[in-house]
Amino acid sequence: MMDKAKNHKLILLWAIPLALAAVLLTVAASMPAQASLDDTQATRSEEYTADLKLANLSVALTENGNTRSYTDNKTGELYKEPLLQDLNGGNQLSFGKRYQEDLAAFNDGTQDEYVRVVINKYWWDPAMNQKATQLSPDLIELNYLTDDWIVVEDPASAEQVVLYSVRPLAPGESLSFADTLRIDPKALEGSIRSLYTNTGEESGYVTTDYTYETYNISLDVEVSAVQTHSAEDAITSAWGIDMNNVAGTGRAIQKAE
Fold it and tell me: Which has more pLDDT, 209 or 168?
């Protein structure tokens, strides 16, 4: 009877849901406005006629086509909404299954801009209301779109990944940097504790606890933008990288035409 109970429990492993959290920190950075020519506002004198308009540099984060953060161009105030609310219809997640999670940077400013995304992924302990630093962030898998982004992983921390757009984004353009999220089924390995209660051969049973099932997954995402004017110096100053060889990856950020 005990062997049958144990086999039955293993068959049900894939039906055990993973707790779901919605934690988000987003930052949309705005750079100082620059002057550019346009015909919407005129300043005139007897000597000349010049059409002037202030350009705005701004970037937002979108999730499955919905804006999750943006900066009000008039007040500079940042608005943000949590991620993962609609993942799997708001229901709990299963180990090993891929879920649609289209994350993108959106240029909601008025000029071309380079974009950086900083992602921190980690496990959250709802009972202690803090990060579960003893658990592996590697098991939270985002599928990054590496054709359009240079992905830099921090060798000292599995929690953080930084992405740089390989080219500038035009005003109104959206560029996805991830498209699915998955919890590695390795979360089921090495974290199983079986408890046996024997009151006789016929009534003995097995219960199994899984370390990760009592924790939540969390994503913190920060998006920022840099101007294309004097891009090499601007990118080095703002992000501390060489655009010709980003963080030693051998990949370059394309210069604006």
Answer: 168
